[in-house]
Every structure is written in C-alpha cells, then in structure tokens.
Amino acid sequence: MTTEDSRSLADIDGTIESTQYLHLDRSGEGVSIKVSVEVRPAREKQIIAFPIDDDLNIVWKQVVAGMDEGIALVAEHEETVVAAALAQPDPSRGTMRLLDIRVDYDFRRQGVGSAMLYQIIQQTRDSELRAVIAEVRSNNFPASQFLLKTGFDLSGVDVRRHSNHDMVKESATLFWYAALD
Length: 181
Hints:
The chain is of the alpha+beta class. The chain has a single domain (about 5-180), classed as Aminopeptidase, CATH 3.40.630. It is globular, with a radius of gyration of 17 Å. The protein is built from four helices and eight strands, in the order αββαβββαβαββ.
C-alpha cells in the first residue's frame, strides 16, 4: 500500500449486512462462569456502516508511512482501491494482530479478502510468529464466519469491552486465534 492508496480507504464501502448474529449466554458467577455462543437470527436485517475510526486511521497512516511495523495490503480493480488489510506484529506475544480487513461491497465473495488474509498469515509465518489474532464484535456475523472459514478458532469473549451492557445489546467482543504451529 502506498500513501496515495491510503487516501482511498474511506471510499471502500465496508457496510456490514447480516440476518444473523452470534448470541452469547452467560451463566454462573465468580470464576465458575460459562459463556455459550450460538448463531441466532437477527430481529431484522442488520445494516451497519463500518467506517474507519480515528484511532484505526492513525495506525493505517503510521504503518503505510513506515513509522510503525506492520503489514498494509491493498487490492485494486481498474486503478480503484477495492480492498485493504492491516496487521501489526506483537513480538512480545509472538502474534500478528489483524486490525482491519475490508472489501468493498461490490467485490465481496470473490476471494479478495481471503487472499489478503492468507498473505498476512504467510508473512506471519515468515516472521516466525506463532499465531494471527483478531477481534470482532458479536453482531458482525459475516466477519466471524470469514475468520472461521479461514482457519481461526474462537478463543475468548469480553462482554464489557465497550460497556457493561454489551451482552444485552448483542455486541460483545469475540477473540479469534489462528495458530500457525
């Protein structure tokens, strides 16, 4: 990705559409808790805008400019940016954190996102890191399905990352892990 390409990131239509979500049910208390996750139909079709927030935009710029370590990939069609992916290594944990992967609405389900993710996985292996990790909100069912399809395992849940009421609002954070051993 070049600096010029990064200016086109906002033009990628990252809208999320889904008729399903991952429902979390928590039981128990203290250290004896159990969280179950199951696919459920949404009350109505979810259409969620997925713009790049300010914090992520800064990371994109820093990686593209070479100020921070990371992988910034772009896919073009007829000289237009149609997909992008961003990941950063965390050598202290031996992992590569997938921070963003977005494919324009008109170019989804054609393998572009998978190809970008597999490039990140290969670069993670080349860097001798042990895994790729990702975080997804439970209401982003398409992203969870994508990670599951590409070899990630659900490895954890944070029900309070965004507020104390996320399980009720169906938007807890899910942690995904792709081991490379």
